[in-house]
Amino acid sequence: MKILTQLSRIFVGILFILSGLIKLNDPTGFSFKLEEYFSTEVLNLPFLIPYALAIAVIVVIAEVLLGVALLIGYMRKFTLRALLVMIVFFTFLTFYSAFFNKVTDCGCFGDAIPLTPWGSFTKDVVLLIFILILLKGQQYITPLFKANKSNWIMLTSLVLCSFIGYWVLNHLPIKDFRTYKKGTNILKGMEIPEGAPRAKYEMNFYYEVEGEEKKFTDKELGQIPKGAKFIRREDFQISAGYIPPIHDFTMDKDGIDHTVDLMAEPKLVLIISYDLDKASTEGLSQMKDFANSAIVNNYKVIGMTASSQEKIDQTIETYELPFDYYTCDGTTLKTIERANPSIVIIENGVIVDKKHWKDRAKAQLKNK
């Protein structure tokens, strides 16, 4: 039991630290996942949505600290109970998500290691088993250091985690694991390779035959009796087929998708605000001068948002912005960039730089 407890201690501790640090690299992305969980379609806790980012930061820092505490044997009883409460909560959350197919990715490891809902649930069940082992053999979890040194380790961990959280929220993730990272060719990311598997569907047709409703598959159409009356048709997807890494990116204006034309621009700047109502007013106020600077250097500058045309017009007028907005799905824009607003520089369809609006002075704009 002693050896099993120590192995479980190492496994759980490292996994909690790894999971927490990956999410701490991008707490805004994790907060988007929490907003999905809090929505009326999932847990029906909409009053928590405004606090999603704060909750995300607290949870990910707690994950790291609990992992560190377990490894060094700090406050054993409290640490084990906190680990149990956290894993029970997340096990319930991932089961609910998987069973009802509500959230397709739990965000457990951010964008670094995407997990399916059932994969997330399985991971949590495994962790729960190991934590129960730790509770059973908790007498073998002894401190590695004296109290003063353990206190300093925990305090240092808290300070470092807090600094990382502050940094990434005021700049961008230290490591970008997303589909739209620097170096990505957007149009190539949208291509479907030749010979890639296509989505497969099954079609069922319902007819009234002698006063009764009967179902016929698309392979049984030749068996439909004469005089049968068509009622309805239902289509079911059997397999999704190949889905390109970038499959939901559009640059729409006045009902026309301008993606191909804009991706051909040699020098293009995107000012992204997935929701103009939630955008930083200070950030938007800085976009006028930044955009003018880019235009002087022969860049085409456009905004991208999922907001209404009324809000777009109001924003352009309020901040005297020298560019037009194109629309795109809000989730896609959240995936591209975390700051609101944020800056993405593209050359011939390739993302060459991404910046938080606070780092606009460091954006890699080429001179004329």
Automatic annotation (TrEMBL):
Record-annotated Methylamine utilisation protein MauE domain positions: 1-135
Membrane spanning stretches: 7-25, 45-71, 78-99, 125-145, 152-169
Membrane-protein topology: Multi-pass membrane protein
Pfam families cross-referenced by the UniProt entry: MauE (PF07291)
Record's keyword terms, sorted: Membrane, Transmembrane, Transmembrane helix
Subcellular location as annotated: Membrane
Domain of life: Bacteria
Keyword Ion transport: no
Coiled coil: none
GO BP terms: methylamine metabolic process
Gene Ontology CC terms: membrane
Protein name, UniProt field: DoxX family membrane protein
Source organism: Myroides pelagicus
